[in-house]
Amino acid sequence: MKLGEIAYAIGATLAPENSDLPIRGVAPLEEASPGDISFLIDKKYSSLLTRTRATAVVLRQIDLPASFNFVPLVVEDIQLAVVKLLNLFNPFKEVFPPGVSPKARIPDSAKIGKDVAIADFAYIGDNVTIGDGTRIGVGVYIGNGVRIGKDCIIYPNVVIREGCQIGSRVIIQPGAVIGSDGFGYYRENGRTLKVPQIGSVIIEDDCEIGANTTIDRGTITNTIIGAGSKLDNLIHIAHNVRLGRDCFLAAQVGISGSTVVEDEVSMGGQVGIVGHIRVGKGTRIGAQSGVHKSVPARSFIFGYPAKEKRRAMREMVALSDLPEFMNEVKRFMKEFKSRYGQESENNRKGS
User: Fold this and answer.
1) CB-count burial class (<10 Å; 0-12, 13-18, 19+) for 223
2) C-alpha closest to that of 198 among 226, 164, 148, 172
3) Dihedral sign for Cα atoms in the order 171, 175, 180, 183
4) What three-state secondary structure class fits 314?
């Protein structure tokens, strides 16, 4: 690919005389060789600019050094430019062979759109609808009545159970389970009865669901994942949860049943949230926090139990100082007893 083509694709400024330089791949600054293009996102790595062997580097004008041995591609939004750059050189874009495999199970009642790819051993249930351009990987199970939109990518061994709805441009990573039964039971006369889970799961447009993530179907109403939300690997979403638009959840988050998470909420890894509460719009929750009550919009909470971040950090600092504080108390008590304890003993003897 020529450098001028790359500059146009990522919206970079490039000196015209460098437009025909060939670029074979993208690599980090410290690993790049002649023929590679690299990038600088964080200025703390600026020292690598003097040592890199990359032919070209994408960076902001403010990060351009006084002297350099590479061709600069200057951009305003470096993060966006790098996303576009990586898409240009992604060798794994096409992981699904085109067409429908004869080894897939597809009933006559299924409605398959144009340019759909369905790999070996995929199971398509009755009355399933799959939109144009969607790709279904090896060993995927799609239950009866499922509806999947356009241009989705369903990676191998995903399970989408009966009646679930998947929007357009959704990515579901390997091993995810959509529409498993919610965790609902009732005790009667010493027996445990399973509560039927007759709701469904709705995943709206432009979501991504991480590997081995599980999203339970609703008991009566639906479990909903809002448009644009991104879920990392190994996350559990319980029945009747309503996750808003453009939420970001890191690995091992667990959200209990019937909780409402409003739009634009972000959660660090291993956050746990109890059921039947509401997390307000734009809230940020630090890693390993335990959220046990509703949270107002635009909060930044952290800790176990989760509380306002600055307060939580002050408490952590105070707790780390507790051993030294206790030692000071012990020294004080020892000195107090040695000084005043003897006086009290003498006073008792004198009386």
Assistant:
1) buried
2) 164
3) negative
4) helix
Provide the number of structural domains found in the chain: 3
Give the distance between the most distant pair of CA atoms in the chain: 108
Q: Is residue 156 part of a domain?
A: yes
Same domain for 127 and 269, yes or no, is yes
Q: Are residues 289 and 340 in the same domain?
A: no
Same domain, 214 and 300: yes
> 305: helix, coil or strand?
coil
* Containing structural domain, residue 55: 3-88
pLDDT in tens, 165-204: 999 999 999 999 999 999 999 999 999 999 999 999 999 9
* CB neighbour list of residue 41: distance below 8 Å, 6 or more residues apart: 78, 79, 82
Q: Please check the confidence at residue 82 and state whether its pLDDT lies above 60.
A: yes
Residue 318, in any domain of the structure: no
285 close to 270: Cβ distance less than 8 angstroms: no
243: which 2 tokens?
Answer: 């996750």
Catalytic residues: 239
- Starting at the earlier edge strand, list the strands of the sheet with 230-231: 117-118, 135-136, 153-154, 171-172, 208-209, 230-231, 248-249, 266-267, 284-285, 300-302, 307-308
Neighbouring CB atoms inside 10 A of 51's CB total: 9
Instruction: Supply the mean pLDDT for the chain.
Output: 94
Do 196 and 231 share a domain, yes or no? Answer: yes
- Cα–Cα distances (Å) from 134 to 161, 168, 205, in that order, read 17, 9, 13
Give per-residue burial for 18-28: e unless 16+ CB within 10 Å, then b.
beebebeebbe
Q: Check whether residue 131 and residue 161 sit in a common domain.
A: yes
